[in-house]
Write a structure and sequence with these properties.
The protein has about 130 residues and is mainly β. Helices cover about 5% and strands about 45% of the residues. It has 1 helix and 11 strands. Strand 5 and strand 6 form a beta hairpin. The longest helix is centred in the last third of the chain and has 5 residues. The relative contact order is 0.31.
């Protein structure tokens, strides 16, 4: 059974930091492109960042560049999202996702890549207060 379980989301003040974790099982982690998406109330789900777990290459949405860092621990089948200098507009439910359909490339965060994910976590809320 495939599982993606997110953890680490809480309420934080603007300017603060959080680290999200996504622990996975049931598939060959190293073969997949892993990513983080978010969905704010009334908005579409959008890609925030992705990582090619075998090569370690990463891509970020423009609005989080320089603030968020995605990483993976292949031995633990886990992907992380370190979020620094958080802003109120970062408030959303954050989802972990895995795919074999697309590579982590600029298109992952530019286009509607949510349609190309194979597996999803259930999501975890992150609230940034002013």
């Amino acid at each position: 059974e495939v599982q993606l379980v997110e953890s680490g989301g809480v309420l934080v003040q603007a300017g603060g930091s959080l680290r999200l974790s996504c622990t996975t099982s049931g598939f060959t982690f190293d073969d997949y492109t892993m990513g983080w998406f978010r969905q704010a109330p009334g908005k579409e789900r959008e890609a925030v960042s992705c990582i090619n777990t075998s090569a370690g290459s990463t891509i970020y949405k423009d609005s989080v560049k320089g603030r968020f860092i995605i990483s993976s621990d292949n031995a633990k089948n886990t992907v992380y999202l370190q979020m620094n200098s958080l802003k109120v507009e970062d408030t959303a439910v954050y989802y972990c996702a895995a795919t074999l359909q697309i590579y982590c490339s600029p298109g992952y965060v530019k286009y509607n890549s949510a349609m190309s994910m194979d597996y999803w976590g259930k999501g975890i809320p992150v609230t940034v207060s002013s």
